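idk why but the lab printer keeps eating my pages so im just putting this in chat instead. protein + 5-amino-5-deoxy-1-O-phosphono-D-mannitol:
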Amino acid sequence: GKGRYNHYMLKEINEQPEALRQTLNGRVDLENERVELEEFPEGAFEGVDEVHFVACGTSYHAAVYARQLFHDRGIPAQAFFASEYATINPPLGENTLTVAVTQSGETADTLSALRRAAGKGGRTLAVTNVVGSTAAREADDALFIRAGPEIGVAATKTFSSQVVSLAMLAERMAEDRGAEPRADAARYLQALSDLPDAIEQVLGDTSAERVASAYADSLSHFFIGRGTGHAVALEGALKFKEITYEHAEAFAAGELKHGPLALVTSETPVFAVLSGDYDEKTYGNMEEVKSRGAPVIALTDAPESVSRVTDDVITMPETHEDLKSLLANVQLQLLSYHAASLRGRAIDKPRNLAKSVTVE
Ligand code: M6R
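predcted complex ->
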């Protein structure tokens, strides 16, 4: 049941530390500074020269986040909407690994992309929460994210567990491909292990709830970011639309001035996810919207450095740069939850939506 929570969504947001402990359990070896995935013996990814992520919705955003982590480790990776995979029809080399990222393992679009890759002779991997799901059974291999059952239609804890699972996959794959170990391996792996505690700190913070009510009368909520911050901006906007029924949109911070800036007014608060990737450039984008009268809310671990360009700040604890946006995402989950709750929405079962979309 929901226990002391009014909604499964809030319960699942709060379960993230425990879910991540399960995701990480036995997989990060701090002593030898490496990741160990029980499913994959040494050399399992030796031949892989490119990764195609196929996914939908929140799982697609996890793939967009992960793409950057793979690139940082020298692994060519692309993220596709599963429903677009057939149309875009990317060439598939014999050493391309198609990775289906799917919480349920039953999403029709994702299964169809997976089957397409397999049909072309490609190797496949399912990254999923459900042992025994169709994706897990059909793919050559499966990596389980171990987040525990998710009931709320809005995906929350599974996003965090997907990103962390994919982060570990990137490390394992880099090792098999003979990449140099990360220069910051000890600090990164420690930060991964400490992530459940960092999320616990975020969950104790009430700023997202305060901000949700401060901007409740807005015409639209905009989310901007760069790199992993863009992935999380996309996820923040999806969650906001899905459960508040209000308009929300995400932009790569640098794209604002190429069109969307025309929409920006005092009635469109702009949430900036500061991921540590070229933040100075994002400050510039924040100034652009501020000078058009839009309220600017920063998600950051360094509030003092943005006070000049913000009306409000949502602060996160410090962590490794690659994981910062994951903490910002938890704040955005809380923002959407409280915004939807203020409006009295059917948070666990938003209109028109199903937990698992089994038609193409
Ligand atoms: O089970 P999957 O991860 O394959 O589901 C993909 C999407 O349908 C899902 O993430 C959807 O976008 C969520 N309702 C978002 O909160």
